[in-house]
Amino acid sequence: MTSIFCKWGYLPDGWRPNVRITVSGGRISQIQSEAEPVTGDMIATDGLLVPAPGNLHSHAFQRAMAGHGERRSAGEDSFWTWREAMYAFLEHLNPDDVGAIAAFAYMEMLEAGYAAVGEFHYLHHGPGGAPYDDPAAMSHAIAAAAGETGIGLTHLPVLYSRGGVADEPLNDRQERFGNDLADFSRLHDAIRLQSSDSILGVAAHSIRAVTRNDIQSIPGTFGNGPIHIHIAEQTAEVTAVEDAYGARPVEWLLDNAGVDERWCLVHATHMTEAETIALARTGAIAGLCPITEGNLGDGIFNGPTFIANGGRYGIGSDSHVLIGLTEELRLLEYSQRFRDRRRTVLRDGPGSVGQAMFDAVLIGGAQALGRDAGRIETGCWADFVMLDGNRITPFVPDRDQWLDHWIFVAGDRAVTDVWSAGRHVVTKGRHVRRDAIERDFRNCLARLFEKMTS
């Protein structure tokens, strides 16, 4: 049993002073406000305790590529040229590499304030597409990395069965992803997760990479967990699907796949007004990754219409070119301001835009990950972030502005401690196993770069 005492806690009914929380079995067992600390409490007399969001979209292996895609080629660079560079990089990865890279990425997520991750995992096989003796070897490397770092894992093995929307075969660089539905079902069944708070869901890579029949079969085939899919990230993708299916990607999915609260549609960048409203009304989550979407030149999500129609969203760090919780939220809001030339866009009505965004990603992330979290409430997983009040409260004494100051000013530097399902994994802003995890990551990079240049 663990107990935490903080000066202020962000509870479902707002900020409350002198909050004491008891955690048992990884879940919140008791909450007291206007309390007194007792012997054995972890005490943060200047701390602001808030729920820790989930990072709903991750391709962990891409963390090792961060900073390697910023050189201009002879022609015009785009998502599609970046994808070719990514394909070339992953040819060198084995399960040990993926585990070391994922552990480093997950450590950085925890230090930024995330408590859980949705791993959208499509790198299944060895070079050339040969399955490993354990068909889920790569997934087990991901699970081991989550166990090593203490992050909550929603594992989303990805079905990837064709090279394009016209049923093109996989190219030689896609063979490591590829499975037909029967082989994928066997792989999915072989996955074993480690922690009691781990969740196994499923993902379809995209409409271009999975047949329409397979997408329609997923909800009834792979249990009751979360279902994720990339959707409408690039205009070329939208055009290709519309040419082949006679409907745009979001339009076709909503009409044919039974999209409901189990689904997370990642990116959903290029939607018409009607599609935006229709998606909002399904109760599904829009999975937004503003840093990656900006880095790849994807476009800007239609936030105001989506929110005005009750839409739910969460955030993810996707390619991990930079892992920053508050940076994702800032860029999400600022991208709306750039486009619309007005301020405080992602709030429907008066009040704090930072609070509105933070509340949204708490709810949306928990739903997308199938995780009983996102709020400090009895019975929920103990996913918390402690913020250094000295970086926030002296500058904005009004409590309604504290989240604004954290997100738009203080940033991730204000994070002092993080708990995931009661596991105290970050203290004084640093992961408890940082030295070993960083050493393994650096050694992995050195091996990879030697392979790539030899």
How confident overall, as mean pLDDT?
95
Helix content: 25-40%
Note the main sheet: 9 strands, parallel
Rg calc: 21 Å
Secondary structure class reads alpha/beta
Low-confidence stretches: none
Number of helices: 14
What's the count of strands? 17
The general outline is globular
> Separation of termini?
52 Å
Strand percentage: 15-25%
Describe the structure.
This protein has 454 residues and is of the alpha/beta class. The protein has 14 helices and 17 strands. It is 37% helix and 21% strand. Strands 5, 6, 7, 8, 9, 10, 11, 12 and 13 form a nine-stranded parallel beta sheet that branches. Strand 15 and strand 16 form a beta hairpin. The protein starts with a strand and ends with a helix. The mean pLDDT is 95.
Features:
eight-stranded mixed sheet, 14 helices, 17 strands, nine-stranded parallel sheet, globular, 454 residues, alpha/beta
What is the compact description of this entry?
This protein is of the alpha/beta class and 454 residues long.
Helices and strands, with pairings:
Layout: E1 2-11, E2 14-24, E3 27-32, E4 42-51, E5 54-58, H1 79-90, H2 95-112, E6 116-121, H3 137-149, E7 152-159, H4 181-190, E8 199-200, E9 202-204, H5 212-221, E10 227-231, H6 235-245, H7 249-256, E11 263-267, H8 273-282, E12 285-288, H9 290-295, H10 303-308, E13 312-315, H11 325-340, H12 353-369, E14 384-388, H13 402-410, E15 415-420, E16 423-427, E17 430-431, H14 434-453
Parallel strand pairs: 1-4, 5-6, 6-7, 7-8, 7-9, 9-10, 10-11, 11-12, 12-13
Antiparallel strand pairs: 1-2, 2-3, 4-14, 14-15, 15-16, 16-17
Helix pairs in contact: 2-3, 2-14, 12-13
